[in-house]
């Protein structure tokens, strides 16, 4: 008898199964929006698709008379720039600290408790401190994302490196490898796929910190725009912006996944179909 846990969908089946809940949510929204607009044609809480299409037209294709830029393009460029710099710095820092803390006992004893302590501090709680120290410019927003995701990523990577089988470390030293060579040839190749996975998991909190910082102090950005139009209950703009942010996040996740599978195929062995 074939057990349910051994049944695996094919590629088309996986795609269909993944789309079904999304389509169900869209259908549910359309039903609710239609019912509300039938009762009140001026309802702004659940805009109908035509109203959202008009909002997209305004934000994505018409230049802002004040700045001369298309709002969605300018907001996307500003947000992605902040996110890219912060995530890049976080990845580089995580790689260095995660490798050394995970592989070198003295570094682990020295920095491990500090990283563990910082990782449990709610990043949003330090946002006022960052604004005071770094001002209301770009630096405070980038630092918030960096502080928010880096400690957790470092702890994850250090734990992964520390779990490398002792036999591999001993064999490398037996063959004459120095500490640096062991780090470079044994730990680093095994740490990189994990770092990419950690980055994928950190994208969601990174977006949260970005939107939070932009909502409080910014004059351009996706989070800034959402909180700006919130004053006018402009759900016909807010919802497309949320969908656009979700789409960007999904594209980043898929790109990182593809990078990991392409560059480190050995870390993604095919699962047997039983």
Beta content comes to under 5%
The separation of the N and C termini measures 12 Å
| Helicity range | over 70%
**Which structural class should the secondary elements be placed in?**
mainly alpha
Q: Which outline best applies?
A: globular
Average pLDDT, rounded to a whole number, is 90
The helix/strand order is HHHHHHHHHH
The low-confidence parts are none
Number of helices: 10
* Oligomer type: single chain
Instruction: State the total count of DSSP E strands.
Output: 0
Domain ABC transmembrane type-1: 80-260
Pfam family, one: BPD_transp_1
InterPro entries: MetI-like (IPR000515), MetI-like_sf (IPR035906)
Keywords: Cell membrane, Membrane, Transmembrane, Transmembrane helix, Transport
Descriptive notes:
This protein has 274 residues and is mostly helical. 76% of the residues lie in helices and 0% in strands. The protein contains ten helices and no strands. Helix 5 (127-134) crosses helix 6 and helix 8 (179-216) runs parallel beside helix 9 (222-229). It starts with 10 loop residues before the first helix and ends in an 11-residue tail after the last helix. 27% of the residues are buried. InterPro entries: MetI-like (IPR000515), MetI-like_sf (IPR035906). Pfam families: BPD_transp_1. This is ABC transporter permease.
